[in-house]
Each structure stands twice: as structure tokens, then as C-alpha cells.
Design brief:
Low-confidence stretches: none
Oligomer: single chain
Number of helices: 15
Mean pLDDT: 95
Strand order of the largest sheet: 7-6-15-16-17-14-18
Helix content: 25-40%
């Protein structure tokens, strides 16, 4: 029977590849008709779009070699921008206020100077963390607004352990310098972002995927952990010796036979964002000005926009360019309809990026139920209940949604390596 893997995203592909390398019999079941999970892509009239924004900045030499051997990459400097009330600020905004009106810069600097000094361990939520790092005015007009747009919850509903190196905390000197002149220094958590030259982001997994046995359109609808049987929506079944799952925790708890009620409840209480992707292709090569940028205006639904054509020219036909916007909502909220999202996004982006509808030759909107794990205050307690139960019934849960973690590409790949080693051992 061998090892069975549910899901052909980056963690599942990595686990399958490393088990295969050691001669283990591996079979992967994928509910969709193609592989890659959130790393997959789609093509419309010669325009290729990934599912949400993806880059890699792996430091591990082994993982870097796997990715590069699969597909040579472009190395882009980690330079991004912020759009705020008609102004373009280099990222991170707190270090690059120079473009703002003087009155607004003064408010930010004064509030920054008088922010409270509270030890990290005494902060109760993300809102408090922001106020301590940046002061009231900047926090309320920049990250607090973005938090609701990106995470789907208010800042005071989130905890803080997820932050790590993701948010730069400047000194007063840095803020003042950036208010006078846009800074050349890169304050991002990595100096480069890599992206495949051809084939879209999932091409970094081409070598790993090559010899894997992936069964498509195989949606798991029930798991019997006692008899070790998987049941599929096409009325077939499969037995397993070892099971690796990348199914999101809220979903897997619903399909396990006789799953305890407390586990179901904990899984159901986990928050995540769902997301729309608005993908636009243009008959002009110069629409996209920035590799990616963040939007802080409340009336604009999109939180983040990037350009597939700047990531690689292979993503568009000659003489064309492209943009893709991400719009996120908490999974507990009612989703706005596609047409509302599409209309708002196209109208607002046309103003921001200076194009008209006649120049759009591809217009597409798609929905993904699982976009990002949300770190609300109860995440660790609820997550642990589910993971402990899965361990108890010998289901190896991996990846962003299987571990319910904020994983970058290389971290999800490493998770696949780790579970393969554990099974082989």
C-alpha cells in the first residue's frame, strides 16, 4: 500500500519527491485537475497568472539548488511600494514618508516620538504592538487599515507571535530621515526575491514533480483512520500504510470518521482568509510600474497588487503587461459577490495605474477558499487540539494549512523534507 499523500502543493510534492528518492512507494491524490496547489497557475490568451503572489528567497543551499535546477530564476531586488491617498511611498512606509504633505508627516513624527515603551511580553494584541512600534497616527492610517484588508480581522483581534522579521521597527532618526528624503536603504526582511524565468512559479518544482504518481480529480470525502481507508468523491477508495495530508485543518476534521466533537469545534474556530484574484492583461507593455505594491485606502478592496509581467516576460505576450490584485476576507464573513469585487478593483486600479478599459484584453476573477492562516488570539489552543488528534490517529499533517502556520515557500518545502525523513526513519 505504501505512503499516500493528499494534496500536490509544494509540501506534498516535496514529501513525495524525498520519499521517492529513497525508494518508498508513493501515490499522491489531488482534488483538482492540475498540480501545484496555491503555487499553480492558469493561462488566458497567452497571459499567465499564478494563484496569488509568489517569490522565493530560500537561503538553504540544498533547497536553492532544487529550485534553480528545476528552473533558472530572475533575481529581483526586494523593492516594493505603498499607495496611500494618491501618494506613492517606497516600502516600508514608516521609513519613507517623504512624499506625504508636511502636515501629515508632522503628525506621524510627533506621535512616533511620544509612543509608549511597553515590553513585548506585556502586549496583549497586534494593535498594542503597532501603537508601541509606530505611534497612534501612523498605526491607525496605515497598518491597522491594512490589517483589516489583508487579515480580515481588526488588529486588536490578532496576537503577535507571527510578526517576527516581517515588520520593520524604525528608530526616530530613521523616521525623520525618511520624511525628508526617500531612503535608498532596503529595510525589507530579504534583499532579493526570485522567480522562474519560464513557466510560472510552480516551475521551481518541475524536477521534484517529474516522476511522481499524481492522481487528479481525486477529492477525499472521508477518512477511516482505524482501517486506514481513503474515500473519494468518485466512489473509489484507497488503503494506506502511511498517510500525509495537506488538507486544511478545518476541512479534515469534518471528513474523519468519528472525529471527536471538541476537535471539530476547535477546527471550526480556526480563522483564515479567503481571497479573490483579479487578473488583468493589457495590450501595452508599460502599464505595470512596480513589481508589487500595497494599498491602504479603505475604499479600494484590493490590499496587494503585483505584476506577473515584471516578474517574468514569459508571463505575457510580446508588447503586453499584466497586473493581479488580491482581495481578502475573513472566512467567517459574508463574501461580496464577484462582480462587485471585479468592478471596484478595475475602476480603482485604472486610476492608480493610469489605464483605460479599452487597453484591457484579459479580465478574470477567481476565488480561493483558503488564502492565508489568520493568527487570532485563540489560534494556538485550537490548532494544538486538532494537531494532537491527527498525531494520535497517525495522520501526518504538513504544509501551510496542514500545520496551520505562516509558511513561506521554502518553509513548506522543508516541511515536506522533514516528514519524509520521519517516515523513512
Amino acid at each position: 500500500m505504501g505512503t499516500k499523500i493528499i494534496g500536490s502543493g509544494i509540501a506534498g510534492i516535496s514529501a513525495g519527491y524525498h520519499l521517492n528518492q529513497q525508494g518508498d512507494e508513493v501515490e499522491i491524490f489531488e482534488q483538482d485537475s492540475d498540480w501545484g496547489g496555491l503555487c499553480a497557475n492558469f493561462t488566458i490568451n497567452g497571459f499567465r497568472f499564478d494563484k496569488f503572489v509568489h517569490f522565493t528567497f530560500a537561503n538553504d543551499e540544498y533547497i536553492k539548488s532544487i529550485f534553480e535546477n528545476s528552473s533558472p530564476t530572475h533575481s529581483h531586488p526586494s523593492v516594493s511600494y505603498n499607495f496611500y491617498k494618491g501618494y506613492w511611498l517606497k516600502h516600508p512606509a514608516q521609513n519613507n514618508l517623504a512624499q506625504l504633505p508636511l502636515a501629515e508627516k508632522i503628525k506621524i513624527i510627533l506621535d512616533f516620538a511620544k509612543r509608549k515603551n511597553i515590553p513585548f511580553e506585556k502586549l496583549e494584541n497586534y494593535e498594542q504592538w503597532l501603537l508601541v512600534q509606530y505611534g497612534k497616527y501612523f498605526s491607525e492610517n496605515f497598518p491597522m487599515i491594512y490589517t483589516k484588508k489583508y487579515w480580515g480581522l481588526e488588529a486588536n483581534e490578532l496576537e503577535t507571535k507571527w510578526i517576527g522579521k516581517r515588520m520593520h521597527s524604525p528608530s526616530l532618526k530613521e523616521v525623520i530621515k525618511g520624511a525628508i528624503k526617500t531612503q535608498e536603504e532596503n529595510f525589507y526582511y530579504t534583499n532579493y526575491m526570485k522567480y522562474p524565468k519560464v513557466g510560472g512559479f510552480r516551475s521551481i518544482l518541475n524536477d521534484c514533480r517529474k516522476n511522481l504518481d499524481i492522481k487528479f480529480n481525486k477529492k477525499v470525502i472521508k477518512i477511516n483512520p482505524i482501517d486506514k481507508i481513503l474515500y473519494f468523491s468518485d466512489d473509489t477508495t484507497s488503503n494506506y500504510d502511511n498517510l500525509i495530508s495537506t488538507i486544511p485543518l478545518p476541512k479534515i476534521a469534518k471528513i474523519i470518521d468519528n472525529c471527536p466533537e471538541n476537535v471539530k469545534e476547535a477546527a471550526n474556530n480556526l480563522h483564515h482568509t479567503s481571497g479573490y484574484m483579479v487578473s488583468l492583461g493589457f495590450n501595452r507593455a508599460d502599464i505595470a510600474k512596480h513589481l508589487w505594491f500595497y494599498i491602504y485606502d479603505k475604499d479600494i478592496l484590493a490590499s496587494r497588487v503585483y505584476s506577473p509581467s515584471l516578474k517574468s516576460k514569459d508571463n505575457v505576450p510580446n508588447g503586453c503587461s499584466s497586473l493581479q490584485a488580491e482581495i481578502f476576507f475573513d472566512n467567517k464573513d459574508e463574501m461580496p459577490d464577484k462582480e462587485t469585487v471585479l468592478k471596484n478593483t478595475v475602476e480603482k486600479l485604472s486610476q492608480i495605474c493610469n489605464f483605460n478599459e479599452e487597453e484591457i484584453i484579459v479580465k478574470d476573477i477567481r476565488f480561493e477558499k483558503y488564502a492565508n492562516v489568520t493568527f487570532d488570539k485563540n489560534i494556538y489552543q485550537n490548532r494544538q487540539i486538532v494537531l494532537d488528534y491527527l498525531k494520535e490517529i497517525n495522520i501526518n499533517s504538513i504544509g501551510r494549512f496542514g500545520k496551520w502556520e505562516y509558511m513561506w515557500t521554502h518553509q513548506a518545502f522543508q516541511d515536506g523534507i522533514n516528514i519524509a525523513k520521519a517516515i523513512l526513519k
